[in-house]
Amino acid sequence: MRPLTYIRFAAAFAASITFSGFAPVAAAAAAPAPAPSPADGDDGIPAYAKFVKGADVSDGIFPLIRKDGKVYLTLAKDQLDTDFYEHATIANGLGGFGLLSGDDFQQPARIIRFERIGDSKVSIVLPQYRLIAQPGTAAEKAVELSSAASVLAVMPVVAEDTAAGKIVVDPAFLLTDTLGLGNQLSDIVKNPLNPINGYHLDPTRSYFGAAKAFPKNDIIEADETFASDKPDTTIDTVEDPHSVQMRVKYNFAQVLSSPGYMPRLADDRVGYWEDPHIGFDSDDSFDDVERFVTRWDIRASDPTKPSPAVKPIVYTLSNSIPPEYHAAIRDALLEWNKAFERIGILDAVQVQEQPNDPNFDPDDIRYNTIRWLTEANGGGFAEAQIEWDPRTGEIFRSGILLDSDLMRYEKLYYGDEVSPEAHKSGLEPSFLHRDTGAKLQAQFAATALALYGENVPSSFSYDFLKSIVLHESGHDFGLAHNFIGHNAYTAAELKDPNFTKANGIASSVMEYSPTNLWPKNSRQGSYFQTTIGPYDYHVIHWGYAAIPNATTPQAEVPTLDKWAEAATNPKFAFASDEDVEYDGHAVDPRVSHWMLTGDSISWCKTQLGITRGLLQTIDARYPKPEMPWDQERAAFQMVLYDYGNCATAMAHYIGGEYLSRARRGDPGAPNPLTPVPRTEELRAFANLDAFVFGADAWRISPTTLRRLTYSEYEPMADLGYKPTARHDVSLAEIVARQQNADLQLMFAPLTLARLADMPSKAGPDTTMTLGDLFTWTQASVYGDLAKGKPDRTLLRHNLQRNYTRMLEQIAVTPADGTPYDAQALALHELVAVQGYLRRDLTVSGLDLETRAHLEALQAEVHRTLDTKNVTTPLRS
Predict the structure, then answer these.
(1) Which of 7, 150, 431, 709 would bridge 126 by S-S if both were Cys, CB 3.0 to 4.6 A apart?
(2) In the chain, what's the furthest Cα-to-Cα distance?
(3) What distance in Å separates the CA atoms of residue 488 and residue 171, rounded to the nearest whole number?
(4) Which of 248, 203, 207 is nearest to 227 (CA)?
């Protein structure tokens, strides 16, 4: 449940939030009224001249009329039955809490058509465009019969100029909750003790705000009030506001498609976001899905030699960005010109400062704007924003949101809502936006350097921000994540500053790369990815290089196939989001967030050693003189955050298989699946034993633990201050969270099933088996009991109780998909534990807590082994 305190703060703060950094365009002067019609039409629709009398008219793609507090759209006759673009986004946030100004991440254009219904109405129709066929063919007729359009709204016609061929419509439907903001606001509250304190749209307090008309688009703003029937009163410090105003921007625009643009068909060996369609022009293909890549129409003005781009991508840096960060952002954007130059396109990317012009407005669809947000608790994130034509995949607008918290990486603070250990444990930290991990990586590195006794380099901020913008602008060009790029380089190369300066710390900026940090006094390369890597050159070439004489997307495929064969080279390999989630589905441990080198096991062993050493020196460096104890507490959490990253990654090796996207015939192509060798899985488990499960894994000074408190202030719910129940940090909770996360991953039904199948796919003893998993974990968790020397620490007791309960569940109530052999092995291990316990309870000198722990374990094991009449579902 999210703390109730924050919705109060959010709602109170929202009233003072405005769209940052931009003054609205001055209202256009009233357009000259045409010669008035002598009277209203025979159908009773008012004459245009009569309707606009005394109104404000702004000339744009659809002239806007503001009258009596309402906004109306004017449609020309030739704009009916024509494709346009519409989308909506919020214009203000809550100062944090997950609702962000202008948040339209990875959004395709929504194609609409205005269709007149009789004399008095106009419908907004969303045509179907996912099922496709060549125009004028029988297949196209079949598609028309087999598919359906949608109707977004029906608007009344409120005025008409018959002679000029234009009508005025009332878009009152824009004042409804089209974005589902009521549900989003209610989710922020989430108080099960007060279920009716959610928010809903109050139409009596909702009205039209600013309206802007531009040559290619119109913006109509709906200022919508969301009310709570029963504000929460469980916190008595501040009364919960009854309402929150959210400003929703509706954008009606011309689709900025390029004449002659030809879609390019996607290939799973190369990473682009895709725009899928189902094609019916041929029955010869194995798959009727046609996946168009999302990309800009960037071509050289002279295709026979290097020449300037016909339609360069021009970015505008908002004047809301602090001046000290402009250079890093500009340089990151222009860095991509290196890749385009290699395919003969010069100055493909250009950057300008926001013009000192009162008529400039980022809502003008012709601008690609980099914007800066100030969030109360954004956590430090960046977000690419692209809009594309869903009929072809052509990108026509992009931008980047940057949260100001990114650059506070050296500011150590504590707050449960942004707790790093919660971030790594799989728990959802309240209000954290996506992609905050990069800031935490920089924060860890700054903390580590301070504990090394070294200063953060002067270039650190520039390099960090440049790496962030390099990644997000890659998305702006249509590029997907690539989470195997780290596999291309060695540890020796990453320690070489000359190598990393030229090649980066991974083969691609589309990685989530950690800070490239090595032990104190080691050779040290670049900390961040500050240049595009070999994969980035490759992916731009594949997606944007011209293919002469190819006149259809299908005609390009033979050439694209040859280019994509390079994926068997680690420098050009690709693997994305679907291969990285730690849920049992992701099979390849080389595909990972926050990892470096082609030997992740060794790299993680080094990183875990670094963090363990840092925990031993933290008292000497923190807190700084006259600083509160919060600073050491935050530094402690930063170190544990990095510790948890590698501790979890090692569990990904268990039951793993290397996945190849290569196709048959590609040079050096391996089999699609290759089981991870048993020796590698044993190496990974050795890290888990030493740093997560083992008796000596969590040796932290009691003195340190006594220092990890926080500053006390009088609780003020409206400012988001709500202290935790405990003054200290519970090491037992932190350790149990990490151990349980790793156990859940290793013993997930999908992982167990894969291990059970391994002997049928690999030779004897070449890869890990179910028996190995249970045997290795048994020795790591119960090793002290097996030796007759029960450990007396709370951390060990918790681990044994939690693992015993996991074995009990597998044995008695296994989850769907759990193999029978796993159930049998769980029972086998419980029998062994029962034997340990019988003997160990006879050991003399046991302290009370340890004896009670052993007795409780014995009771649980006995209860499980004595279970009668257990019925389990059939499983394969």
Answers:
(1) 150
(2) 109
(3) 54
(4) 203
Give tens-digit pLDDT for 502-517: 999 999 999 999 999 9
Q: Which residues pair with 148 in a beta bridge?
A: none
Domains in the chain, start-ordered, CATH in brackets? 4-126+145-253 (no CATH), 307-652+699-707 (3.40.390.10), 730-746+766-865 (no CATH)
Give dist(CA 516, CA 185) in Å, integer. 39
Got the DSSP string for 200-262?
A: EE-GGG-EEEEEEE-SSEEEEEEEEEEEESS---SS-SSPPPSEEEEEEEEEEE---PPTT--
Q: List the one residue out of 40, 39, 34 whose CA is nearest residue 52.
A: 34
Are 52 and 86 a contacting pair, CB within 8 Å? no
* Separation between Cα atoms, residue 282 and residue 285, nearest integer Å: 7
State how far the Cα of 629 lies from the Cα of 619, in Å rounded to an integer.
11
- Kindly list the distances between the CA atom of residue 166 and the CA atoms of 78, 103, 367, 787, in Å, as whole numbers in the listed order: 9, 34, 29, 90
Q: Is the model's pLDDT at 236 over the cut of 90? A: no
Phi–psi pair at 7, nearest 5 degrees: -65, -30
Placement of tokens 């500011």 in the chain: 411
CA pair distance 314, 367, nearest whole angstrom: 8
Question: Do 524 and 518 contact (CB within 8 A), yes or no?
Answer: yes
- CA dihedral sign, ordered 590, 595, 600, 604: negative
CB 276 within 8 A of CB 288: no
Q: What is the pLDDT of residues 114-133, one digit of tens each?
A: 999 999 999 999 999 899 99
Which pLDDT tens digit goes with each residue over 486-503? Answer: 999 999 999 999 999 999
Spatial distance between the Cα atoms of 73 and 78, rounded to a whole number of angstroms? 15
Closest CA to 594 of 633, 640, 644, 553: 644
Backbone phi and psi for residue 563, each to the nearest 5 degrees, phi listed first: -65, -40
Tokens of 723: 């202290």
Whether 70 and 222 have beta carbons less than 8 Å apart is answered as no
Strand partners, 659: 673
Contact call for residues 120 and 7 (beta carbons, < 8 A):
no
- pLDDT per residue as tens digits for the range 444-458: 999 999 999 999 999
Residues in the chain: 876
Q: Which tokens in the block code for residue 483? A: 């989470």
Computed on alpha carbons and rounded to an integer, the radius of gyration of the chain in Å comes to: 31
Neighbours of 573 (CB within 10 A): 25
CA atoms of 433 and 381, how far apart (whole Å): 7
Helices assigned H by DSSP within 377-496: 420-425, 437-452, 460-476, 491-494
* Cα 812 from Cα 279, distance rounded (Å): 49
160, β-bridge pairs:
47, 167
pLDDT at 780: 97
User: Quick one: average pLDDT of 53-60?
Assistant: 93
Return the number of other C-beta atoms located less than 10 Å from residue 51's C-beta.
21
What's CA 505's distance to the chain center, in Å?
21
Tell me the backbone φ, ψ of residue 593, rounded to 5 degrees.
-80, 150
The Cα 675–Cα 757 span in angstroms is 11
Which pairs count as long-range contacts for 707-713, CB under 8 Å and 24+ apart, including other chains? 707/619, 707/629, 707/632, 707/633, 708/629, 708/632, 708/633, 708/636, 709/629, 709/630, 709/633, 710/414, 710/628, 710/629, 710/630, 710/633, 711/628, 711/629, 711/630
Tokens representing residue 448 in the block: 């580590």
Q: Are 522 and 495 in contact (CB under 8 A)?
A: yes
Spell out a b/e string for 383-395, using b for 16 or more CB atoms within 10 Å of the CB, else e: bbbbbbbbbbbbb
Tokens standing for residue 299:
């071509």
**CA angle at residue 413 from 410 to 414, to 5 degrees?**
150
Q: What angle do CA 680, 684, 685 make, to 5 degrees?
A: 115
Q: Closest Cα to residue 376, out of 9, 20, 628?
A: 9
